[in-house]
Amino acid sequence: MSITHVVATNPVSDYELVGAGIDHLSEIHDALLYTQLFRQMDTVSLEILAEYLTVYKVAAGRPLLKEGETSDFSILLLSGSVEVLKKPPRQNAPRLIATVTRGKLIGEMSLVDGEPRFASCIAGSEATFAVLSRADMLRLLDEHPKLGSLLLMQLISLLSQRLRQTSRKLVGLMASTGKG
């Protein structure tokens, strides 16, 4: 498989390591019950996926992702809450665009394309989360192609859903300002 690997920031330096994903399988399983993304996976598949995850935690107020930062990993929130903030052009203060809770995935765009982060994510409370790096995603695709392909299709589906939601909001905004 020939996919260019992006040199990324190392999440280990910013987060407190809790352990290997497989050692937190029940927490990962419980969090996944809250999301559509992984509902098609059976227990064996979840166990395999957990082998490619690393679990971390951060205190409230600490950043998980920084807007504009180049990195290539995604985060599955296992507990706590995360505020997603976006700095509008020509403004100094970032604006809250979403609050993410257990079972939600953040950072998936950079996992897929390795581009800089679109928004910042700050822990709204103490948060525990599992990290899937691009390198581990590629390793999963190589070692378990069927599961890796299923995960990629689910990521694509998630990205598509989010793009559709954003497009609907944009159309609504354009209609309300008379620019549509």
TrEMBL record:
SMART domains: cNMP. Residues 37-141 form the Cyclic nucleotide-binding domain. InterPro entries: cNMP-bd_dom, cNMP-bd_dom_sf, Env_Response_Regulators, RmlC-like_jellyroll. It comes from Parachitinimonas caeni. This is Cyclic nucleotide-binding domain-containing protein. Gene3D superfamilies: Jelly Rolls. SUPFAM superfamilies: cAMP-binding domain-like.
